Task: inverse folding
């Protein structure tokens, strides 16, 4: 039988991903004898979802290298999905990594992450007393949500953000982004999600480049994202991420169509923390550092009816990311 603890850990991430999950095994078992072991196990279990959400957060800042003219602006909604690769549907459970958890048979095995499916029925885990080695319970590894069953697309955790850009002097643009909603029902909070960035034309500072038939700009942006769940019954979870994006972008406007490319780097760090009275867990925290790295973006923007703009881009990075944007654009 599921407990509220299952709903906290899985329900929070699932609500963030807007998908349904059904699990056959409670996570409570992995905390039975050791909070440290439970954190270790669930940290690896949730890692692909955290990397996906964090990489999605770093995307969708720009859809052209050309800054707005003075006081020009755009208001754009974006959705980014960093696809979870097949290799991260499973992780390797090794007995030596745990103090009170072990495989019923063997010393290591591949078991599901959040993104995976059902575990191999031949694989079972045991919780045992560290001092005596006596088994206290036997259970199946936690099932994943089965992203491999989603056809065509590379599935991940979607991140939806609002973006505002305003033209400043010297071919510079200020960009601000935020979560379009601050809460979902009574249990979910997304407040504190905010970012700011600057896009600046660098052609103007390079001798002889003004006649080059493309726009070239540098961009730096930083944003934070917070997603919290609290059921009011002593059970809560919180996902926090910060992402800094550095890019050099180039684009070429062709009537209503503007292809663009960007080359840069992401610096991303995230945490997932939770407490649960149901499982007697207090302030457990998973820390995920260095989730970023180099990135290459290719995309295009299409102007519709002069002021509407639809953009699509794809970024090759730690988790390759698809971004789609739609907004009002007055240059």
Result:
């Amino acid at each position: 039988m599921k407990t509220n603890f299952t709903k906290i850990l899985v329900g929070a991430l699932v609500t963030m991903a807007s998908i349904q999950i059904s699990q056959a095994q409670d996570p409570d078992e992995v905390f039975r004898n050791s909070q440290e072991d439970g954190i270790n196990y669930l940290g690896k279990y949730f890692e692909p979802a955290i990397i996906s959400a964090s990489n999605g957060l770093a995307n969708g800042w720009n859809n052209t290298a050309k800054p707005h003219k003075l006081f020009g602006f755009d208001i754009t909604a974006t959705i980014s999905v960093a696809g979870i690769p097949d290799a991260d549907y499973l992780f390797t459970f090794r007995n030596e990594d745990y103090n009170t958890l072990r495989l019923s048979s063997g010393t290591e095995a591949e078991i599901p992450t959040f993104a995976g499916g059902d575990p191999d029925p031949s694989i079972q885990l045991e919780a045992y007393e560290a001092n005596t080695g006596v088994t206290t319970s036997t259970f199946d590894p936690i099932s994943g949500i089965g992203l491999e069953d989603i056809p065509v697309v590379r599935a991940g955790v979607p991140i939806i953000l609002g973006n505002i850009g305003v033209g400043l002097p010297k071919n510079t643009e200020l960009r601000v982004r935020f979560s379009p909603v601050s809460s979902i029902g009574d249990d979910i909070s997304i407040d504190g999600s905010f970012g700011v960035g600057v896009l600046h034309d660098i052609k103007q500072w390079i001798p002889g480049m003004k006649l080059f038939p493309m726009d070239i700009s540098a961009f730096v942006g930083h944003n934070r994202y917070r997603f919290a769940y609290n059921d009011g019954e002593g059970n809560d979870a919180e996902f926090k991420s910060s992402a800094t994006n550095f890019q050099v972008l180039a684009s070429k406007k062709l009537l209503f169509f503007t292809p663009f490319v960007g080359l840069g780097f992401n610096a991303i760090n995230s945490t997932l923390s939770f407490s649960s009275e149901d499982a007697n867990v207090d302030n457990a925290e998973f820390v995920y550092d260095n989730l970023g790295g180099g990135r290459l973006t290719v995309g295009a923007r299409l102007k519709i009816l002069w002021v509407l703009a639809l953009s699509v881009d794809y970024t090759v990075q730690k988790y390759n990311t698809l971004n789609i944007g739609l907004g009002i654009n007055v240059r």
